[in-house]
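Retro notes (design track)

What went well: tokenization of the new backbones is finally stable.
What didn't: we kept losing track of which sequence belonged to which structure.
Fix going forward: every design gets posted as structure first, then sequence, in one message. First example under the new rule, 132 residues:
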């Protein structure tokens, strides 16, 4: 099973979404490298994909999603561990891995996110932030 880590990144009530080359909108995430902790992976992937490095992780929030997809004719299973973080950085410097980005309010983010698993994570993150 592939393992990745990602982040629901919030800035003043908006959520960062990235557009992937296939056209779907999702959160920043990427594969765990050998010897990396999940938080280190999340921070590295966020920096590589967006240029954002100044974040504050919101303690107490983690979610895990699992899904299957087809790559080069083979079905693969992926697990993603999600974190929640806040930032004051707004400028995004996209990597070659993405086509576009957008900061959206929660409701607009729910509508634009392509995959139901990601939508569920973002809904949980919003609820968690509202409870602290």
């Amino acid at each position: 099973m592939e393992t990745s880590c990602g982040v629901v990144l919030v800035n003043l009530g908006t959520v960062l979404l990235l557009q992937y080359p296939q056209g779907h909108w999702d959160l920043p995430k990427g594969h765990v490298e050998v010897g990396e902790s999940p938080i280190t992976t999340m921070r590295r992937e966020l920096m590589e994909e967006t240029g954002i490095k100044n974040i504050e992780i919101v303690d107490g929030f983690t979610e895990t999603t699992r899904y299957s997809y087809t790559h080069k004719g083979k079905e693969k299973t992926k697990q993603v561990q999600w974190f929640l973080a806040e930032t004051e950085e707004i400028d995004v410097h996209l990597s070659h891995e993405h086509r576009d980005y957008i900061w959206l309010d929660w409701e607009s983010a729910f509508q634009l996110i392509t995959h139901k698993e990601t939508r569920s994570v973002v809904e949980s993150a919003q609820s968690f932030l509202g409870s602290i």
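Added context from the reviewer: The mean pLDDT is 95.
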